[in-house]
Amino acid sequence: MEKFIFFTGMHWALFGAGLAFIGGAVGSAIGITYVANVGAGVLSEDPEKFGRILPLVAMPGSQGIYGFITAVLVWVFFLQDPESLVNANVGFEIFLACLPVAVACLFSGLYQGKTGTGAAGLIAKQAEAGGRAIIFPALVETYAILSLVICILLLLNIRG
Fold first, then answer.
1. Residue 34 maps to a domain
2. Which of 68, 66, 69, 75 is nearest to 159 (CA)?
């Protein structure tokens, strides 16, 4: 089987899929932790704000979902048919196509969590501002979504 920089096409594809999942999962886990810590403090003072805090805590979790979707798409498009990965360059292209999700979801999860902490602080002081507060972390979400879209377009192009 052909190799490119010591890896076969299958290895590169697995590496890309795994990295996309790991980046999204780590970004989500850390982002959720940031918001949950602040949210728990808010709820310790006023448990009635749970419904307003929960969406903020859950939002960074979407990056892990985008990483999971990317890994599943690599499996569906390429890993089910090992013949598609005989050429190591194709596997490397898949790896490169997964990088936007791996990197963008790692950082957007972190920063969405940080933005969510500010939004939770706003809700702590003004509960009625919950609808406006969620806009700030939602703006960070845009870039995670764009990374998934470009990854899907790249994978579709590679699949040809």
1. yes
2. 75
State what percent of residues in the chain have pLDDT above 70. 98
DSSP for residue 101: H
Task: Please check whether residue 40 lies inside any domain of the structure.
Answer: yes
Amino acid identity at 81: D
CA distances to 34, 65, 110, 127, 140 from 115, in Å: 9, 19, 9, 17, 8
- How wide is the angle at C-alpha 36 spanned by C-alphas 50 and 32, nearest 5°? 120
Question: How many other C-beta atoms lie within 10 A of the C-beta of residue 136?
Answer: 15
β-bridge pairing 3-4 and 7-8 = antiparallel
Q: CB of 84 within 8 A of CB of 8? A: no
Average pLDDT, 10 consecutive residues per value, the chain (160 residues)? 75 94 98 96 94 94 98 91 80 96 97 96 89 92 97 92
CATH number at residue 55: 1.20.120.610
- pTM recorded for the entire structure: 0.91
Q: What is the mean pLDDT of the chain?
A: 92
* C-alpha to C-alpha distance for 66 and 77, rounded to whole angstroms: 16
Q: Establish if 146 belongs to a structural domain.
A: yes
| SS3 label, residue 3 | strand
Is residue 2 assigned to a domain? no
